[in-house]
Amino acid sequence: MVASGRFRFTAMEGVLFGQPAAEAIAGEAGRYGAERVFLVVSGHLDRETDEIDKVRTALGPRYAGSFAAMPPHSPRDAVVAAANSAREAGADLLATFGGGSVTDGTKVVQICLEHDVTSVEGLDDYRIATSADGRAKLPQFTGPKVRQITVPTTLSGGEFNSLGGCTDPRSKIKEGYRHALLVPRAVILDPAPTVHTPEWLWLSTGVRAIDHCVEAICSAKANAYCDAATLHALRLLAGALPRVKADPGDLEARMDCLFGAWLSMTAVIAGVPMGASHAIGHILGGTCDVPHGYTSCVMLPTVLRWNAREDTGRQALVAEAMGRPGDAAGEVLDGFIAGLGLPRSLAAVGVAEDQYEVIAKNSMHDGWLHTNPRKVAGPEDVIEILRMAE
Question: Are 185 and 13 in contact, with CB atoms under 8 Å apart?
Fold first, then answer.
């Protein structure tokens, strides 16, 4: 049967690389005619480095203020607080500088600004609601006029996606928000500031990017266009992450990682569905407070093993791209992740057996659980996967 589908491009206007981040932010602000640029940034970078001060200096009178208190998993209350600060500053452009929580949270800040959301409850009408059988209800709303540009300092790749996410502190579930204009207008890839990213965070989010590649390659909806990007991304990441671990100052390796993360998102942007590693990982993050990079370190090899009996030969492409043709993909990933010194079990990331039931229940409401290559029939299958990852 001839494959069919539709590739959806985003509303992003450009990706800049090879320029210092501060200069690039100021240049983009000038190009857009922005006069009140509000920064949402990593607290670590703001307090302990001069990277954010470089941006303030480069912006000059265009600088309107900053917010540097976005916790992991972008909780709603912090998102609303950032939006309130940006509104008070009269922001006409948001610039983010930091990891995935900063980027994702600011996507939702854009909704708050456009729709005058000033409370945690005010975001209820804009979140994607997914039922236990995988059916999603996507609310329709006007896109933001105040948009963002982004400097990523980790490798999860969410900056290339129009899907934002933040965690509802009431349910402890990370929820999605989608609109074409939530994607940043521009992404700036500068490896130099990433030397400040803690090693565990850089490497584990690199595994998160590998997770995008692997679940896209193994997806029932994979296609040749996305394979070209994800297989090359996998090669880049498999080669460059160990180089950064060996020499944290290797900016060429860091740039390869950034390109790998960008390429890893091609299939996600195209609409190729991910699988159980992503779905369970979302719940481990929002419900159990496990960093998303770590969720991929633990779940990806396990899910590959669980899926192996339904594999149509796609897992062999993964092993080959990682330089281990003929080996089982789950074992290849397990060894690679262990070689980076990253955790390999639920116990190692603080998840106990008494949490399995709620993880399984909540996972059923993640759409990507229902697009896993091997059908997940119910919560009992999720618990079986979790037990394999102990």
Answer: yes
DSSP letter at 343 equals -
Q: pLDDT tens digits, residue range 187-233?
A: 999 999 999 999 999 999 999 999 999 999 999 999 999 999 999 99
Task: Kindly tell me the burial class for residue 195, based on how many C-beta atoms sit within 10 Å of its own C-beta (0-12, 13-18, 19 or more).
Answer: middle
The Cα–Cα gap between 156 and 187 comes to 13
Please choose, from the candidates 149, 51, 21, 162, the residue with its C-alpha nearest in 3D space to the C-alpha of residue 91: 149
Neighbours of 340 (CB within 10 A): 18
Q: Which structure tokens are listed for 176? A: 């999605």
Domain boundaries, the chain: 14-192, 198-388
β-pair type (173-178, 163-168): antiparallel
Q: Which amino acid is at 141?
A: F
Beta strands per DSSP E along 156-267: 163-168, 173-178, 186-189
DSSP 108-136: HHHHHHHHT--SSGGGGGGS-EE-TTS-E
Tell me the whole-structure pTM to 2 decimals. 0.95
Is it the case that residue 2 has pLDDT exceeding 90?
A: no
**Is residue 128 classed exposed, middle or buried when 0-12, 13-18 and 19+ CB atoms within 10 A define those classes?**
middle
Domain 14-192 has CATH 3.30.1490.20: no
Q: What's the CA gap between 308 and 315, in Å, rounded? A: 8
CATH topology of domain 198-388: Dehydroquinate synthase-like, alpha domain (1.20.1090)
pLDDT tier for residue 174 given thresholds of 50, 70 and 90: confident
Look at residue 172 in the predicted model and tell me its pLDDT.
Answer: 85
**Strand intervals (E) in the chain:** 14-17, 37-41, 63-67, 93-98, 129-130, 136-137, 148-152, 163-168, 173-178, 186-189
